[in-house]
Specification:
By secondary structure, the chain is α/β, with parallel strands linked by helices. The protein contains nine helices and eleven strands. The protein is globular.
Length: about 220
């Protein structure tokens, strides 16, 4: 129990911005493996990620030692270790709540399974949507959410419902044992300690990008 608590505390000490970069490292390293590259330097990784070599070294230092000064990193070793750190060598059952246009696009996306994420359930409140086949799943009624999520060991949920229902849906998911939520509604729902939520809002992303455009008036 103490060991698990220490691991959780260690993970909490890693800045979230570092964690969000790790999947990008894995993707780049995977491409390097496909190209037959055996060793990569922090300069090369930094160039591909558009961050400094010092930032690469600092990011990786949170998780131990991976390379030797002047010799770079073993692509295979770094790739495998980062996948392990991210939990990508496990299988994760994922539910999608909200099967509108966005939910359907998510359900039809083929890239989840290769990285260990299995879409196992989809829910919607609309009678016009319930019963439809989307991707490999039949959409179930939102009324079945508690029973299905609890019974299928679903620990991750993708939420794409209207703002007015978002908090209620997330509260229900948390009560059923979901501990990681990707929220696409343009709101910031509250979750208890121990539950991770990431809000994906393209408008906010665009607003942050305009900062870098400065005072340019040439739109």
């Amino acid at each position: 129990m103490v060991g698990n608590q220490n691991q959780e505390e260690d993970r909490a000490d890693v800045p979230e911005v570092v964690v969000t970069r790790l999947p990008q490292y894995v993707r780049i390293l995977n491409r390097l493996l496909e190209e037959g590259t055996e060793v990569v330097s922090s300069q090369q990784l930094g160039a591909k990620l558009q961050v400094t070599p010092a930032q690469i070294r600092k990011d990786l230092s949170y998780f131990g030692r991976f390379g030797k000064q002047g010799r770079g990193y073993s692509v295979r070793h770094l790739h495998d270790r980062l996948r392990d750190i991210l939990g990508l060598n496990s299988y994760w059952n994922v539910a999608v709540v909200g099967v509108g246009r966005l939910g359907r696009a998510i359900l039809s996306y083929p890239g989840f399974t290769p990285d260990g994420f299995h879409l196992v359930a989809a829910f919607d409140a609309s009678e016009d949507v319930v019963g439809l086949q989307v991707g490999d799943l039949t959409v179930q009624s939102i009324d079945e959410l508690e029973e299905v999520v609890s019974g299928q060991n679903i620990s991750i949920a993708i939420v794409a419902v209207p703002v007015s229902f978002t908090q209620e849906v997330i509260d229900t998911l948390v009560d059923c044992g979901v501990r990681a939520i990707l929220n696409y509604a343009p709101t910031s729902p509250q979750v208890p300690e121990g539950v991770r939520i990431r809000n994906i809002d393209p408008v906010i992303a665009l607003q942050s990008m305009t900062y870098y455009l400065g005072d340019s008036t040439d739109h």
